[in-house]
Predict the 3D structure of the following.
Amino acid sequence: MLATVLHKPGDIRCEEVADPKILRPTDAIIKLSASCICGSDLWPYRGLQPVDGPQHMGHEYCGIVVEVGAEVRNVRPGQFVVGSFCLSDNTCPHCRFGFQSSCEQREFMSGAQAPYARVPLADGTLVATSEVPPAELIPDLLAVSDVLGTGWYAADAAEVREGSTVVVVGDGAVGLMGVLAAREMGAGRIIAMSRHASRQKLAREFGATDIVAERGEEGIARIKELTKGIGADSVLECVGTGESFDQALACSRPGGTIGYVGVPHGVSFDGQKLFFGQKRMLGGPAPVRRFLPDLMERVLQGRIKPGKVFDLKLPLAEVAEGYRAMDERRAIKVMLEV
Ligand SMILES: [Zn+2]
């Protein structure tokens, strides 16, 4: 089959690779309904993460099961499934505690920017729908697999409640999904920090009540002004830089909570500042599996349209243009037709 392979930074190709096959009795093979490019795929593409030989890219997926290993019990061929980018058994103590992204058997999905993919730990990872969903819901169900699940976790970890005042730092796809999640959780006010007109517009569509375009000290001052000097109950940190963490901490009120899902690069904390600031923090790779059944149901009922985050759709053969478009920030998130 033709699939996406990263050879070295900047060199991404759609080329012939071996068809995936069952390697362990707990695997499943799925035929993807669609795939997409993640912001995190840009790290190796930009050379910010080492590339040791050709890598099969893609970890966001949904599709039809075509084959299962001998020990798979929960899904069967013909079913439509969505899975998380973190593969988990869903039975170990961490999974049962709701942190499937720290599963004792954790692996990370790869090879999903392709027509077919192997999903290890299929029983714990995949969630099936009762019927094959209509084609128009595929972008929304695909978004659940990572980008919505991660934005949702940011809001959940930040303890967004009915009536909460929420600040979302970062207007990438995950930040926009964080806005949607906060609205679904009943936040009273959602302040999105964004400097880009198209992203501001989408943030408003997803539920942002206010937009703050300023950054740094000016951004912090503006949030203080909007919250009558108090700060936000919940802050969603969806970037992962030192500047964005400083922003998140400064925007949070004492006793407030920061949910952080941007992978930290060059971030450090001042212990005394945290101590006297009284800030709560929870983050890390999102345990998307915990939220999958609920989020899939919201999509199937037509309550949420997270697929709107895909602002560019390309055939898999043009995957290199997709990476370029996201790298140059011409696209928020690229969906791939496989
Ligand atoms: Zn587990």
